[in-house]
Amino acid sequence: RINGSRLWTSLMDLAQIGATDKGGVKRLALTDLDRQGRDLVVEWAREAGLKITVDKIGNVFMRREGTNPSLPPIVTGSHIDTQPTGGKFDGNYGVLAGLEVVRTLNDLHIKTEAPIEVAFWTNEEGSRFVPVMMGSGVFCGAFSLETAYAARDVDGKSVGEELARIGYQGEQTPGEHPIGAYFETHIEQGPVLEDEDKVIGVVPAVMGLSWYDCTVEGMEAHAGPTPMHLRRDALQVATAIMQETVAIANRYPPYGRGTVGMVQVFPNSRNVIPGRVKFSIDLRNVNDELLNTMHEEMTAFIQRTASETGLKIQLERVSYYPPCPFHPDCVGAVRKAAATLGYSTMDVVSGAGHDAIYVARLAPAGMIFVPCKDGISHNEIEDARPDHLEAGCNVLLHAMLERAGV
Amino acid sequence: RINGSRLWTSLMDLAQIGATDKGGVKRLALTDLDRQGRDLVVEWAREAGLKITVDKIGNVFMRREGTNPSLPPIVTGSHIDTQPTGGKFDGNYGVLAGLEVVRTLNDLHIKTEAPIEVAFWTNEEGSRFVPVMMGSGVFCGAFSLETAYAARDVDGKSVGEELARIGYQGEQTPGEHPIGAYFETHIEQGPVLEDEDKVIGVVPAVMGLSWYDCTVEGMEAHAGPTPMHLRRDALQVATAIMQETVAIANRYPPYGRGTVGMVQVFPNSRNVIPGRVKFSIDLRNVNDELLNTMHEEMTAFIQRTASETGLKIQLERVSYYPPCPFHPDCVGAVRKAAATLGYSTMDVVSGAGHDAIYVARLAPAGMIFVPCKDGISHNEIEDARPDHLEAGCNVLLHAMLERAGV
Ligand SMILES: NC(=O)NCCC(=O)O
Ligand SMILES: NC(=O)NCCC(=O)O
């Protein structure tokens, strides 16, 4: 069994870097704070005797050798970048649970056949740079290193520049790092486990996702003298699309999701009719056919709205991945470990994307969920119980040992 | 008749101060550029033989004596501060048209019975400091000198400090400056005159205005794992209110106006359900009863929405002034002058607020509109035709002479 209080202490220590007033963390990908967070985790890994490899997109692999040098490593991990108003557990838990597994193996002098590795993947959140899950996406070939390097934040800084600046542009070619099996522990980021009073979520699959940027162009004009019928109000058209985004998701329960999270209004002045509005659309479903239907309904609504209003509307898909069923062997290993340890479990479809879905393209993969308070994540008040985090880490230990061999 | 090319040259000269790359002007109230603009206008006034008075809020009166010392002056004016992305004509035209009237009277050696004065009012735009129309507002007692002095810009600098710094904190108590009648020429800032192909807008009234800040509080949560029915999506509720803002205005044609110009979404991240949305609402009507009905419909809609959704919605009124009908004598003088001069005219209700609405509380007042290109204002591409500006100035000359007596 792992050491729950050591795991908790590490989580709290890492959460100091980029800590916010409201108890959350703001540690955006490839910022100076991300560098500090990476440095701290790498320092801990070195203290635990692990060997560090960094690849060209900044993914970090921290290795504990096994007894059989011909076996590929059993890998666990997640990410340490956060949302702008993120919490202490999202991603960080998965990385530090992996580190705790290693520390426990060290304490107990357990030697595994296959090597054990703990990884953290670059820019999982996609808040500062799209695409989201960038590091694991490049690793599995979902998009190219060049595409990732060229991504820019709102200030125009690129991933390539920022990776070099913080010193995490490594030598290894992404993907040229063998993986025998991959496990990722994560807080659920939803309310289901808590609602059903279960400790461990066995994750059979992750929902597919389509992300869009939508821009509506109207005509800036003075809010007073411009009669209603002569306006080309970009915001009024944009808000109709925002309402439809939610309506589309509501037509495909229980796994349809529709969210507008980001809005920019130009020139954003009280007495000026908005001339341009740019916003994001996030559509999800666990069924790829239904996700495609949702995509088509969105496209059709926008075409209809453009032709009815005469305003120019641009809809660009900026990210897409299909639903991802996990490997039966890994899902089974998680289910078995939880049963052995006597934890209550249930199956939970993941609504959030995780690095595991990309790694699953190259190796058998599975995930372990633990409850988070009120299902809240991507929020500074994100919280989780130490005993739940400990339970998830114990399940990880047992699942990894089953795959690695002792 | 006035000298149109001299008027145009002065407009272009003044527009050099704070000129932007895109052909506009950025000369925010009480900045160094505002000081330079004020100094230039005062220098021109001195060259035209005018006597300068400055009051405590920095309003400047430039006086040409009349033959009858017992008569109060006939005043014209406007403002020379601009929007951050403002044009060359908004406000500046009204001040320089007044100067051109004086220059013309000088050229023709015309003596008026009542004195003639040209005024410019401090901080009409309200972009750097609220409330808007500050100088004329203090002048007529709409709010106190202390309130105005205490207003601060985003950098924390106050109106009192900045007025003193640029050397325009005068001696005279605002309002203790007699006005016999007031005329203000201005670009229309709307599309009506151009649409109807008329040269002169006779302004019977200015619409009343209510400005609000509205805040919707929901619950930030992850866009993937949070089922639709468990969300408290602040943006979905906010967009319903934004749609209703326009719907309310459309129920009260032709003078109902409803605009949402400014929106801030928190945390504004693509895969986070917005936890808080703050936005502005601008409602206008020329009929105060209808404006009040619009206010009540907005309030009722928000109460209903709050109770239906369970989200907290705050609506705060941050500005209000009632509709302002202008004095029949002044409106008549404008109409008569335009007819005498043979210009095509129509009545245009002003949708925008102007210093004239505050001055109208102390003296008979009226306004003269001229067309602006595509009705565009509060924009660097704001434009107006020299012949239209000349026509408006000729109407001003005749209307002022009628009221001043020759
Ligand atoms: N787990 C997580 O927050 N991933 C980011 C991508 C997503 O929005 O699902
Ligand atoms: N004329 C003008 O732009 N005034 C500012 C206040 C308003 O929005 O009407």
What can you see in these coordinates?
Chains A, B: Residues 207-307 form the Peptidase M20 dimerisation domain. Chains A, B: It comes from Massilia aerilata. Chains A, B: Keywords: Hydrolase. Chains A, B: This is Zn-dependent hydrolase. Chains A, B: GO terms for molecular function: hydrolase activity. The structure is a homodimer of 406-residue chains. The first copy, chain A, has an 8-stranded mixed β-sheet. In chain A, strands 8, 10, 11, 13 and 14 form a 5-stranded antiparallel β-sheet that branches. Chain A has a two-stranded antiparallel ribbon with strand order 7-15. The mean pLDDT of chain A is 97. Chain A has 406 residues and is an alpha+beta fold. The first copy, chain A, is built from 12 helices and 17 strands. In chain A, 36% of the residues lie in helices and 20% in strands. In chain A, helix 1 crosses helix 3 (92-107). Chain A has helices at residues 4-14, 32-47, 92-107, 134-139, 145-150, 159-166, 192-196, 234-250, 288-309, 328-341, 355-359, 386-404; strands spanning 51-54, 60-64, 74-78, 116-120, 181-187, 200-202, 205-206, 208-217, 221-222, 257-259, 263-266, 272-273, 276-285, 312-321, 324-325, 345-347, 365-370. One N-(aminocarbonyl)-beta-alanine (URP) sits between chains A (90, 124-125, 132, 189, 352-354) and B (222-224, 271).
